[in-house]
Amino acid sequence: MSGITVADEVAKYFGNFQKRKNKRMWFMMKFNEDQSQVILAEKSGKYTDLKADAAGMWDTMKEKMPEDEARYGCCKVPFVARDGRDLDLILFFMWSPAGGASRKLVVTRNMLCTTTKDAVTAVCTCKKSFEWREDSDCDLAEIQNDLSLE
């Protein structure tokens, strides 16, 4: 454990995010300026139909991931179950890009992100978790396919 805390606003937001009436597809968290706390960073716009709006909102989420800063996030992913039912699942992700900074800074950032992950996932309790280092790691169709096979 790193001693970094998760802001109360994150716990409150995640509680609301889980509710069916919440029409946001994703939200992201980041470290505050002095890296002592994980705070809310950004959230998606509201969707009308999660399945229909997913691809565009996913692309927007990926565009918001900085090349040189770590992020945590939660996203609702629609998928078709093996039995043909339309479902969605809230996933947790950790974005810790491999590039965009000196090697020493990348290693330090990745260590900070990894050691704080347990504190964040204790607040944002999701059934699935992903760690992404580059844009190609977070492919919506691939994730949906993996979920459909479970």
Topology (SSEs and partners):
Blueprint: E1 5-6, H1 8-17, E2 26-31, E3 37-43, H2 50-64, E4 71-80, E5 86-95, H3 103-123, E6 128-132, H4 140-149
Parallel strand pairs: 1-3, 5-6
Antiparallel strand pairs: 2-3, 2-4, 4-5
Task: Briefly characterize the structure.
The protein has helices spanning 8-17, 50-64, 103-123, 140-149; strands at 5-6, 26-31, 37-43, 71-80, 86-95, 128-132. Helix content is 37%, strand content 27%.
Main features:
150 residues; alpha/beta; Severin; 6 strands; 37% helix; 27% strand
In the CATH hierarchy, the architecture is: 3-Layer(aba) Sandwich
CATH superfamily, by name, is Severin
- In CATH, the topology is named Severin
Outline the low-pLDDT stretches. none
Main sheet properties? 6 strands, mixed
Write a structural description.
This protein has 150 residues and is of the alpha/beta class. Helices cover 37% and strands 27% of the residues. It has helices at 8-17, 50-64, 103-123, 140-149, and strands at 5-6, 26-31, 37-43, 71-80, 86-95, 128-132. It has a six-stranded mixed β-sheet, with helices on both faces.
